[in-house]
Amino acid sequence: MSTDTPTLETGEKVKMTGQAAVSAALFEAMEKDPKVLVFGEDVADREGGGVMGTTRGLSSKFGDLRVRSTPIAEQSIIGAAIGAAMAGYKPVAEIMLMNFTTVAMDMIVNHAAKLRFMSGGQSQVPLVIRTLTGAGFQTAGQHADHLEAWFCHTAGIKVVAPSNPTDYKGLMLSAIQDPDPVIFIETGKTLFAPGEVDPNQGAIPLGKAAVAMPGTDVTLISYSSMMFACYQAAAELAEAGISAEIVDLRTVSPWDKETVLASVEKTGRAIVVHEAVRSFGPGAEIAATIQEELFGKLKAPVKRLGAPYCAVPFAKVLEDAFLVQPADVVATAKAICGK
Amino acid sequence: MSTDTPTLETGEKVKMTGQAAVSAALFEAMEKDPKVLVFGEDVADREGGGVMGTTRGLSSKFGDLRVRSTPIAEQSIIGAAIGAAMAGYKPVAEIMLMNFTTVAMDMIVNHAAKLRFMSGGQSQVPLVIRTLTGAGFQTAGQHADHLEAWFCHTAGIKVVAPSNPTDYKGLMLSAIQDPDPVIFIETGKTLFAPGEVDPNQGAIPLGKAAVAMPGTDVTLISYSSMMFACYQAAAELAEAGISAEIVDLRTVSPWDKETVLASVEKTGRAIVVHEAVRSFGPGAEIAATIQEELFGKLKAPVKRLGAPYCAVPFAKVLEDAFLVQPADVVATAKAICGK
Amino acid sequence: MTQASTNAASPDAKTQLDIFRRMVRIERNDDATRTQIRRGRITAPYYSARGQEVIPATISALLNKDDKICTIYRGIHDMVAKDMPLRPLWAEIMGRVDGTCKGKGGPMHLTHPETGVMVTTGIVGSSMPIANGFAWASLLDGSKQVTIAYFGDGASNIGAFHEALNLASVWKLPVIFVCQNNRFAEHTRYENGTSVDQISKRAIGYGMPGYTVDGNDPFDMYAHAHAAIERARAGEGPTLLECMTFRFHGHVFGDADNYMTKEEKDAAIAADPLPRFRQKLIDSGVATEEQLAKLTADIEAEVADAIEFGSNSEPPSVDELRRDVFAEEIPA
Amino acid sequence: MTQASTNAASPDAKTQLDIFRRMVRIERNDDATRTQIRRGRITAPYYSARGQEVIPATISALLNKDDKICTIYRGIHDMVAKDMPLRPLWAEIMGRVDGTCKGKGGPMHLTHPETGVMVTTGIVGSSMPIANGFAWASLLDGSKQVTIAYFGDGASNIGAFHEALNLASVWKLPVIFVCQNNRFAEHTRYENGTSVDQISKRAIGYGMPGYTVDGNDPFDMYAHAHAAIERARAGEGPTLLECMTFRFHGHVFGDADNYMTKEEKDAAIAADPLPRFRQKLIDSGVATEEQLAKLTADIEAEVADAIEFGSNSEPPSVDELRRDVFAEEIPA
Ligand SMILES: Cc1ncc(C[n+]2csc(CCOP(=O)(O)OP(=O)(O)O)c2C)c(N)n1
Ligand SMILES: Cc1ncc(C[n+]2csc(CCOP(=O)(O)OP(=O)(O)O)c2C)c(N)n1
Ligand SMILES: [Mg+2]
Ligand SMILES: [Mg+2]
Fold first, then answer.
1. Which of C159, C194, C204 is opposite residue D159, by nearest beta carbon?
2. Residues 117-146, chain B, touching A (beta carbon < 8 A)
3. How crowded is the C-beta side of C294, counted as CA atoms within 13 Å?
């Protein structure tokens, strides 16, 4: 994986994966701001630059103090990030997989998210937690959970979940610059899918959704890997004469109510689609808000699609059934559009 | 605090606090089933029978092996509970305060909740996690969080949150007998409020809500401490000519859809009230479900009342503003009833 | 390699052969697994323990069927050593309904309580706190059962290790903490993540005996595991065993290994404990070449049969997503 | 009480007086706090550190203003020792807008970065991992700053302790882990929760120096803290200091104390380090009775002024719920 930002004419896009985009953002941010740090398990080049290679090259370029591999000790990873952030640095800490945030929840929730508030604004904790997750690779019950709902429910930490290389780059740049803690969710599916990226892609503001595809009959609200299912569903729906608008939240908390409500007000119908378990999932907040804000203006109930209430299963056939499929989106959209 | 179950004529109720009710349930369960264990920080009588005294007397009666004080090490508390539960015991483990579940999330979420599923049903983990929380005592940002939404979103663990002494007793008895993990939430406000309890009070099934007060105009859906705000609000609403029905969920996950939907179908209006932060809180799931199931039948949007998006503050004036007050419930109910 | 026990136990001929049988079963099974992955017939991530056979083989030779183990993602060798039947094991790693976990757990969460394989976890460090619970249950039962918590060197740096060893010591639990120190945690070399030269020294901080053992030497392993198990059965409490070893195939199947030097890897493979022990059995007259060849052939047949069994098993029904979440099935 | 350092540093007369001043400031402040609680003028839970004054008083005498501390719910003594101004401290514990945290943190989360009081936490064990971050920042800055992580004996049994000490040692961070061993964790006696007779022995498991110190003796404290701080400033890495002490008022204000014997409590109070050190200063001619009386009177005036200040400060506006969640205020 090449880690240098390609030099091209402005406007000319380059093909890169989400991973290359994250890597490019890290290189740029570290280059520009000596306060940016990167650390986590195996992130330095001595350890291969990350198990996935996302941080490859950084330690060779920026030195072993700014880019550090850590012991397997997530509490101490986030703890060190908090202290360094409060002392003026901008750490990008990696928790290899989202399920491993479970051993660092105290540090994330009781400290990182709260210290600005509890200190009455004396302190700030500008850290980024990069973490990878997502089913589809048969890693089973402890390596693929989408736990963003927990962090969305935690006041004081932002939750970012890009779906494409451009957003990976732009949102990472913003997350690093942000004065508050951000959890930055990467997924296997989105990280390795290539896309066209402006080589000069700058920061994309947090908290702003994108209308990824315009439409008139139904709004599909999604983020992260499930954007793929939405695109595919929208294509199938178009054939069936249903025009779907797709909103990519990009930041799940705080989420962009204005964009979502404007879209649903227009279409009159909404389906929230995420990989996380449906029950008490992020989609519930969005559905509850839509029905409240657009009461009487909806043509159908707000629908939610998410994983069933169980752990991520191992067998491929079960994993496929666990994940929302484009066909589920299509069927739901047809049902609420009365087709 | 007396720990013996009072002996009275059947039907004659006794006055006791939620704490006495939990204690009575523990005594009964341990008496009846030698597999029931109790442990956690300071729970044995050598350490005073719990910081709050809830487990007082148990170790003297049932011995130091069945009732054990632990080091301050919540991962090892839950870990030991999991192993013992899988080996055929029924441990009631205490995590002193709900914020401290953050250091045991891996054990609770990745193991206790998933082991039955991941093992294809070979294993079961019948443990109860007792934990205390709730604002109102100026314990500030790290001692009063209502984190039940996290556990509701976690497949495989039940979430129980009693609001009165009878339910404390009956739900604790059920939680102990349940073949699956249960998190049992106690709050300072509900634990020390006295109520009338049938001395022979038996198990109350998990997953069943109670219509705590019948009404016709609006349904207040709540649980735990916020039931007090709902009762007070209902009294004030009655004076204003609004008849509120109050549903006490008792079990927050899996929750009793039938009872809630039947009530809201009748009243046409619903307000979900909880102490947890409103954003991405448990109320979102309930509101999202109601609007979906009762689309077109509602007279008003489903409303949600919960804490604002911030940490629990220290100053009394802030803490009061942080907590949903009866007046907030009243104002919301009046607004959706058009009064 | 460690403080010599005054009266160290030594495996008799029969036990030596038993240890060897378990080692071969592990090795043949591992080899077959990697072959099946290469052929695309298994699609799960696989953490080979090739090179680490002696540790669980020796320990299992000292355990009863009802003794328990809690192991990790790199733990199929621990299960095979504990005499877990291979048919449901293979069906499981192939994601089939006849798997021990009906295909729901897969290789990282394979369990088989019948043979004492209680928990297999993918979260570093988590085998230890849970093992304490089984050990506590044994105390309560008044049984003489022991529980083994297997984990890696990297896991000794995480909080769960500390909490578990402290609790086990305060409660004098019949548990043995077996660290399989293969000198790497994913891509991180031991000394770059661990602040002490020997993990066994951490036992001092828990008032617990701790030993660094040659995890590739069945005799050293036997002596120390025997003492630890006896101690646990006698109600004297836990022991920490740090068993030095090496993993031949990197962290995960497909790992490029370039965080280690070719020399150290070559040296470790050259010191492969399996042929060494095989030769020793022959040289010392414990077994003949023919016996061992037969033993290996029998195991190969068992593995082949298990693969066949797994391959012929059906995938689970999607209804399984609603089963085993709770005791009661979730309605469709 | 511990291995004698070969050239142990000793506080000169001026430093002794400085340590004493900090002790009195802690004690007078604590006394006033308990009085105000009894009068119902403070409603928060209060964890008195009466009896533990020597530890932070001595350490703070060795620190610069820009050195940092991370402390715990039982930590107001640590803050006062670090020269945190009393006015905003009192306004904070009274929940007023002029508090350091505008009344939002309260006594358990009092901080004051200006004097190096960076984090005060109510979660057992959590001061340590965060302290590492400040120490890492000092390394990156190339400064000579050190960070102190205060914690209790009970906290040495939780995972965060282990992870933090290991990381600090591997990274050679300029941090000192100061355990205030008051022999109880809430109601649990040291040995009923802790598997080793001295927490300092756990340092062995992290390849780190560790000492058990008489935390009630300013001379023993000074010698060990001096060495640890010098070591940290010299880039040689962390030290674990286990400082033996006692808390006179139980775990939390109102605590019935019946988990300890009257004898041990009486004995501890009889050995109160404050009058002992006071007498020593006079006996050794470091200060006169009058000087010390004046010093105490000045501090009493400072405390009285701070109480007055806090009492006159307003409660915060409810708009504060929307502030400091993020840098940007949340719209109403
Ligand atoms: C809490 C947690 N953090 C990180 C990981 C990712 N991870 C999986 S295996 C591993 C290395 C473990 O090394 P070691 O304990 O030495 O065991 P080995 O793999 O060498 O057998 C890591 C970091 C994890 N599974 N769990
Ligand atoms: C993770 C966690 N578990 C439990 C508690 C409850 N608790 C508060 S203080 C305390 C005792 C701590 O003892 P020690 O570390 O010795 O400090 P001391 O109070 O004696 O100063 C406990 C168990 C907590 N705050 N955090
Ligand atoms: Mg290893
Ligand atoms: Mg203590």
1. C159
2. 117-118, 140-142, 145
3. 6
Work out whether the CA dihedral B281, B282, B285, B289 comes out positive or negative.
negative
Q: Choose the closest CB to B314 out of D104, D124, D187.
A: D104
- pLDDT tens by residue, A136-171: 999 999 999 999 999 999 999 999 999 999 999 999
Chain B residues inside the 8 Å CB shell of A288:
283-284, 287-288, 291, 302, 304
Please give the pLDDT value at position B9: 54
Condensed to tens digits (0 to 9), the pLDDT of residues D159-184 reads 999 999 999 999 999 999 999 999 99
List, for chain B, all residue ranges whose pLDDT scores fall below the cut of 70: 1-11
- The residue contributing the CA closest to ligand 2 atom 18 is D152
Q: What's D93's domain CATH number? A: 3.40.50.970
Which residue does chain D place closest to B316, by CA atoms? D95
Residue D200 lies in a domain: yes
B192 touching D, CB under 8 A?
A: no
* Strand pairing category for A128-133 and A182-187: parallel
Given the CA of residue C185, which atom of ligand 1 is nearest to it?
A: 13
| For residues A303-317, average pLDDT | 98
CB atoms within 10 A of CB C7: 8
What is the distance in A from the centroid of ligand 2 to the CA of D152?
A: 7
Among candidates B102, B276, B282 on the partner chain, residue whose Cβ is nearest the Cβ of A106: B102
pLDDT value for A4:
45
CB atoms within 10 A of CB B15: 11
Cα–Cα distance for residue pair D183/D181, rounded to 1 Å? 5
> For chain A, which domains are there?
16-197 (3.40.50.970), 210-336 (3.40.50.920)
Q: What angle do CA D60, A113, B312 make, to 5 degrees?
A: 90
Residue D3 reports pLDDT greater than 80: no
Distance between Cα A130 and ligand 3 center (Å): 24
Q: Note residues around ion ligand 4 (Cβ under 5 angstroms).
A: D 152-153, 182, 185
A150 and B CB contact within 8 Å: yes
Q: What is the pLDDT of residue B6?
A: 42
CB contact under 8 A, C318 and A139: no
Residues in chain A with CB shorter than 8 Å from the CB of B113 are 311
Q: How confident is the model at residue D44 (pLDDT cuts 50, 70, 90)?
A: confident
Q: What DSSP assignment string belongs to B7-49?
A: ---TT--EEEEHHHHHHHHHHHHHHH-TTEEEEETT-SGGGTS
Interatomic CA distance for residues C49 and A205, integer angstroms: 46
Q: What share of chain D is helix, strand, coil (3-state, %, to 5)?
A: 50, 10, 40
CB distance B318–D103 less than 8 Å? yes
- Domain ranges, residue D275: 13-306
From the candidates B255, B280, B312, which should be mutated to test the interface with A, based on the most A CB atoms within 10 A?
A: B280
Distance of CA A58 to the CA centre of its chain: 22
* Domain tally, chain C: 1
**Helix ranges, chain D (H):** 13-38, 54-61, 76-81, 86-93, 127-141, 159-170, 190-193, 218-233, 262-270, 273-283, 289-312
C99: in domain: yes
Over residues C6-19, the mean pLDDT reads 92
Residue D7, in any domain of the structure: no
Helix, strand counts (H, E) of chain B: 13, 14
CA distance to partner chain A, nearest, from residue B183 (Å)? 16
**C8 assigned to some structural domain:** no
Question: Across the interface, do B120 and C100 touch by the CB < 8 Å criterion?
Answer: yes
Contacts of B242 by beta carbon, 8 Å cutoff, 6+ apart? B217, B218, B333, B334, B337, B339
